[in-house]
Amino acid sequence: MTTEELKQEIDGMSYESLLSKWRFAPIGDPMFVEEVGNYYKKVMKEKQQVLGPAEVVAASKSVGWDAA
Predict the structure, then answer these.
(1) Cα-flanking dihedrals φ and ψ of residue 18, to 5°?
(2) Cα three-residue angle 35-67-55, rounded to 5 degrees
(3) What pLDDT shows up at residue 41?
(4) Alpha-carbon gap, residue 25 to 30, rounded angstroms
(5) For the chain, what are the domain ranges?
(6) How far apart are CA 62 and CA 29, in angstroms?
(7) Among residues 14, 21, 65, which one has the least CA distance to residue 43?
(8) How many C-beta atoms lie closer than 10 Å to residue 36's C-beta?
(9) Over the stretch 5-60, which tens digit does the pLDDT of each residue have?
(10) What distance in Å separates the CA atoms of residue 24 and residue 10, rounded to the nearest whole number?
(11) Which pLDDT score, from 0 to 100, does residue 68 have?
(12) Which of 4, 27, 42, 43 makes a 20 to 30 Å CA pair with 12?
């Protein structure tokens, strides 16, 4: 995928989807490299700020953490 295609994909993701990918993506995932990675962080932060604290916590609990 091109940088622009990755950015469009990021724009279409919900905060919960962004958070899930952030937690569980493999090392070196193209979503977190260079320009796209910086854009990912920016969009994730913007979407988090739109939500209230309770919604952010609920998304985090929903995504969970696979410690296995």
Answers:
(1) -60, -45
(2) 65
(3) 95
(4) 10
(5) 3-63
(6) 22
(7) 14
(8) 21
(9) 999 999 999 999 999 999 999 999 989 999 999 999 999 999 999 998 889 888 88
(10) 15
(11) 46
(12) 27
